[in-house]
Write a structure and sequence with these properties.
Number of domains: 1
Radius of gyration: 15 Å
Order of helices and strands: HHHHEEHH
Number of strands: 2
Largest sheet: 2 strands, antiparallel
Distance between the termini: 22 Å
Shape: globular
Strand order of the largest sheet: 1-2
Number of helices: 6
């Protein structure tokens, strides 16, 4: 896994599994907390330095310049002109799934990120883009999802 994938460089990433692994490693980090503001709304970067699933792919300046409205706002700004529409749609869908996993309060416990369901299973169901790469990397299926 490349631990320094940034959203602004995502057009060069060929395997979405690398991005998923980086985001999940960030969410599962020891002592990690959900990135939220006082009202409970998720933020790319909160006042305690925690980042959301998309926020961990952004610089601090990129986090600060964007309000947390939806997962595709920053992604659109940094990448849409650099890739074909079908590839952009794949990345957008994958990042939205990761963001949804972060945003769900039920995935967070007293000790940090603790999803009730298997995150890879949820990603596989929700994002064909991720599933194709995951199964190709792990040779789990002979056919893409």
């Amino acid at each position: 896994m490349n631990p320094t994938i940034m959203l602004s460089d995502i057009t060069a990433v060929t395997d979405p599994v690398d991005v998923v692994e980086q985001v999940l490693a960030y969410l599962y980090r020891p002592g990690g907390e959900r990135s939220v503001e006082a009202s409970g709304a998720c933020r790319y970067l909160d006042s305690h330095g925690n980042r959301c699933a998309v926020g961990c792919l952004l610089t601090k300046d990129q986090c600060r310049e964007s309000e947390m409205t939806n997962a595709d706002t920053v992604f659109l700004r940094y990448n849409h002109n650099d890739m074909p529409d079908d590839r952009f749609d794949d990345w957008q869908q994958l990042l939205m799934v990761l963001q949804t996993i972060h945003d769900r309060g039920c995935n967070w416990g007293d000790d940090g990120f603790a999803p009730l369901n298997d995150v890879h299973e949820e990603l596989t169901r929700a994002s064909a883009f991720y599933a194709r790469a995951f199964y190709a990397r792990h040779n789990s299926f002979s056919r893409a999802a």
